[in-house]
Amino acid sequence: MQTEAPNEFMQAFRGSFYGLRSWQDLADFWQVLNMQAEGWYVYAIGEAPPQQVVSAVQLRHFVIEIDALLHREHDEDYCGIVYVDSKTEPTYIKIYDPNNLGVVCGFSDNPPLPGWILSRIPPVDLQAAIQVTQSRRRWWSRLWG
Description:
Elements (H helix, E strand, L loop, with lengths): L3 H10 L4 E2 L3 H13 L5 E4 L11 H18 L8 E3 L7 E4 L20 E4 L6 H4 L4 H11 L1
Antiparallel strand pairs: 1-3, 2-5, 3-4, 4-5
């Protein structure tokens, strides 16, 4: 039987988000996050989901490092690759990797996964949770088998 956390994490992942469009919006948001720095999981997609929250010091260090990476590698005059469930009381933050954007905003049948997720909800393995459905795998097997 599945625990409640995976359902909650995936529901939050599929929820509504606000894009931080400008670099100033992002800077303002980091200030909000720094004031609420306790109780966050920092999850790098592709790595094992973390089992423990990071300390406030670790979160603030991550914010400094990810902000520098985003400014350095997203060579645009706008941000547009950080999405939050709330700009004032966040619980879930998606940060897209500037080197793997695909179609982040707008519609896509196969949007890229974020590079990082900050969440107050214990994360699950996102890649495994979004795997191709079994019916689609059976179809693929019949097609070639």
